Amino acid sequence: MSSPWLIVGLGNPGPRYAGTRHNVGQMVLDVVASRVEGNFARHKAGGPGAQILPARLGTLADGVPGPRVVLAKPETFMNVSGGPVKALSAFFDIPSEQVLVVHDELDLPPETLRLKRGGGEGGHNGLRSITQALGSKDYVRLRVGIGRPPGRQDPADFVLSDFAAVERPGLAVTVEEAADAVEDVVLEGLEKAQLHLHTS
After folding, report:
1. Catalytic residue among 22, 43, 103, 124
2. DSSP string covering the chain
3. CA-wise closest residue to 85 among 144, 36, 25
4. Binding site for tRNA, residues?
5. Domain coordinates in residue numbering, the chain
């Protein structure tokens, strides 16, 4: 049996951060979880904490359930996300090539999505931690654009601020489209998912 995909939504733990820009990756995973009608539960293997949901994603031909996935929301702070990701990839025997990390991206305009495999971390501490923990850059990233802060606001303060009310309708559409992209990667492969996302 082939390994499942590990789908990781980055963010910070607790209600204080739930609605912030830095937690948009976890918002996307909540949408995916609602589609598979499942609930997150704490990972039983111990170590650095994570809420996980093992599931089948999508439906193949003739109604056959889609591939296995493990949805994961680390319970650690963003800059030490690598510990839970490494623990889960080891526990479920998932190679780095089948890890997909959903995260916020300052260098993309709001409501913009991009898929890629590998590359640099662009100053994103969550990605840096995952790269170090896995010992590889060869995982897939789904980048969810949040744009740059207005005026002279510190980017660190900006990513930890809530989305404004005027942004929320667009955000709702974006997280649904991001959940679609997650499904496309798992069901059709990265290249087809990129073609669909980047040309639509």
Report:
1. 22
2. -PPPEEEEE---SSGGGTTBGGGHHHHHHHHHHHHTT---EE-TT-SS-EEEEEEE-SB-GGG-B--EEEEEEESS-GGGTHHHHHHHHHHTT--GGGEEEEEEETTS-TT-EEEEES---TT-HHHHHHHHHHT-S-SEEEEEE--PPSTT--HHHHHTSBPPGGGHHHHHHHHHHHHHHHHHHHHH-HHHHHHHHHH-
3. 25
4. 17, 77, 79, 125
5. 5-199
User: Greatest CA span in the chain, whole angstroms?
Assistant: 55
Q: Tell me: domain 5-199, CATH 3.90.1530.10, correct?
A: no
Position 27 confidence tier, pLDDT thresholds 50, 70, 90: very high
- 22: annotated active-site residue: yes
Identify the band that residue 64 occupies on the pLDDT scale cut at 50, 70 and 90: confident
What's the pTM value of the predicted model, to 2 decimals?
A: 0.94
Return binding residues: 17, 77, 79, 125
Pairing of strands 99-105, 140-145: parallel
